[in-house]
Amino acid sequence: MTKDLAAWLIRVACGIRPLPAEMLPPAPVIFFANHSSHLDFVTIWAALPPAGRARTRPVAGRDYWEKTARRRRLARDFFNAVLIERQHVTVASNPLAPMIAALEAGDSLIVFPEGTRSADGQIHEFKSGLYHVARARPGVALVPVYLQNLSRILPKGDILPVPLLGSLTVGEPLRLGPDETKPAFLQRAREAVQQLAR
């Protein structure tokens, strides 16, 4: 299956419209969103224009996506994911290093600052990774994205989607302020996603 066909099928399954190229800042950018379903990163990826999709990489946990050969092929060969260590983080396996390397290569990233899927539909506190990447690459635009209904389309544990409509809303890009503290930035970033739900 080609990536363009896969993106079309994902958009149809989730009821998501493609994002116009003119509404997105120049690459590389970091798309950050709420997280409730395995459909989340593929939906953002599928909504992007073809040129942007080709250079946008989801950031995902190595522990999950390397568990089976099928997941590994899907993550690495099809989506070109940046797989990061979440459980046994050391200096050598610092999750920021591959993310920064991808940005330096001109690739955009899709990240979920909550760190894991929300079970109750609420947007939980953001972990510090988004702040550290923003501090390391302050020129990169951070694009908030709000995803709605995807956990109902593909509930946890299910493998077949339910025929419901989802939505994807993109907000104005933001950047880390020169003297902005980590707590203030993470709260502002979280609020930028929450405001898109209104």
Task: Briefly characterize the structure.
With 198 residues, the protein is an alpha/beta fold.
Primary descriptors:
198 residues; alpha/beta; Glycerol-3-phosphate (1)-acyltransferase; six-stranded mixed β-sheet; 9 helices; 38% helix; globular
Question: Could you please describe the fold and organization of this structure?
Answer:
The protein has helices spanning 3-14, 39-47, 50-54, 62-65, 69-78, 96-104, 129-136, 150-153, 182-195; strands at 29-33, 56-61, 82-84, 108-111, 141-148, 167-170. The protein has a single domain (3-17, 25-58, 92-195), classed as 3-Layer(aba) Sandwich (Glycerol-3-phosphate (1)-acyltransferase), CATH 3.40.1130. Helix 1 (3-14) crosses helix 2. The protein is α/β, with parallel strands linked by helices. It starts with a helix and ends with a helix. It is 38% helix and 15% strand. Strands 3-2-4-1-5-6 form a 6-stranded mixed sheet, with helices on both faces. The longest helix has 14 residues, at 182-195. The mean pLDDT is 89.
Write the layout of secondary structure elements.
Blueprint: H1 3-14, E1 29-33, H2 39-47, H3 50-54, E2 56-61, H4 62-65, H5 69-78, E3 82-84, H6 96-104, E4 108-111, H7 129-136, E5 141-148, H8 150-153, E6 167-170, H9 182-195
Parallel strand pairs: 1-4, 1-5, 2-3, 2-4
Antiparallel strand pairs: 5-6
Helix pairs in contact: 1-2
How many β-strands, per DSSP?
6
Tell me the name of the CATH homologous superfamily. Answer: Glycerol-3-phosphate (1)-acyltransferase
If classified by CATH, what would the architecture be?
3-Layer(aba) Sandwich
How would a crystallographer describe the biggest sheet? 6 strands, mixed
Could you give the order of the helices and strands? HEHHEHHEHEHEHEH
Q: Assign the CATH topology.
A: Glycerol-3-phosphate (1)-acyltransferase
- Tell me which oligomeric state these chains represent: single chain
Number of helices: 9
DSSP strand content: 15-25%
Distance between the termini: 37 Å
Mean pLDDT equals 89
Number of domains: 1
Structural class: alpha/beta
Q: Share of helix among residues?
A: 25-40%
Strand order of the largest sheet: 3-2-4-1-5-6
Note poorly predicted spans. Answer: none
What gyration radius follows from the Cα positions, in whole Å?
A: 16 Å
CATH class bucket: Alpha Beta
From the spread of the alpha carbons, the general shape counts as: globular
